[in-house]
Amino acid sequence: MDAGYKTPWICKRIIDDGRIPSLPYKRPMTKSGFHEWYKYVYDKYLDIVICPEYKSLPYSTTNRKGYREYKSLCYQCEACQTRHLCTESRSCQKTVTRHIWEDYIEQAEDIQHSPQGKESYCLRSQTIERVFADAKEKYGMRYTPYRGLKRVSMWVRLKYAAMNLKKLAMWKWKAAQRQFFAAMSNAAFKKNLCCAAA
How many helices (H) and strands (E) does the chain have? Predict the structure, then answer.
């Protein structure tokens, strides 16, 4: 899938269904000139986040979007030498968010760096990207003439059903063609054997 689909919910759904996600690297959306995201380390045992200055950010709350918020202690950040690289908050408080399904994204990243993940991702241009390109160029799916989730869903399903039927017909035609040429080559081989024996 594309990097835009690398979300906690999609990763959870794929892994829970017993499938293997093939996702690309997604650039972290950190502010330029600030500490990199990987410098904030999550401690699963203590359920805290450790900042680059080795101070702990305890758990505060979980917001409606499913992100757990870890907030620093204001008096520690006030005297911090690298505060300008961490936060611009007037209260001198740094907030780090971590989704409740973040483990699924980490599993997807581990698969991405595995030999199996690298091999499957190399086939992306030949498989799913080709399907999207055909849908846009040949089947008019750059824009939809319908409005509403139900109508658009039915329209997209009909388009992809037609594409799948076309693919099935091509597979059957190629299989029949291979059988025909195999039979022809066998017949020619037997004829040559008969001629040689005579």
Answer: 6, 5
DSSP labels for 28-73?
A: --PPTTS--GGGSEEETTTTEEE-TTS-EEEEEEE-TTSEEEEE--
Position 68 pLDDT exceeds 80: yes
Report the C-alpha dihedral over residues 99, 14, 7, 107, rounded to 10 degrees. Answer: 60
31/12 Cα distance (integer angstroms): 27
* Strand-pair category, 95-99 with 56-62: unpaired
Cβ pair 40, 30 in contact under 8 A: no
Q: Is 194 helix (H, G, I), strand (E, B) or coil?
A: helix
Higher pLDDT, 99 or 1: 99
Q: How do the domains of the chain map onto residue ranges?
A: 3-122, 129-198
Residue 46 has pLDDT above 70, yes or no: yes
pLDDT digits (tens, 9 = 90+) for 174-194: 888 888 878 777 766 666 656
Residue entry with tokens 């241009």: 125
Closest CA relative to residue 22, chosen from 101, 100, 125, 99:
125
Report the predicted TM-score, pTM, of the whole model to 2 decimal places: 0.64
Sheet holding 56-62, edge to edge: 41-43, 48-50, 56-62, 67-71, 95-99
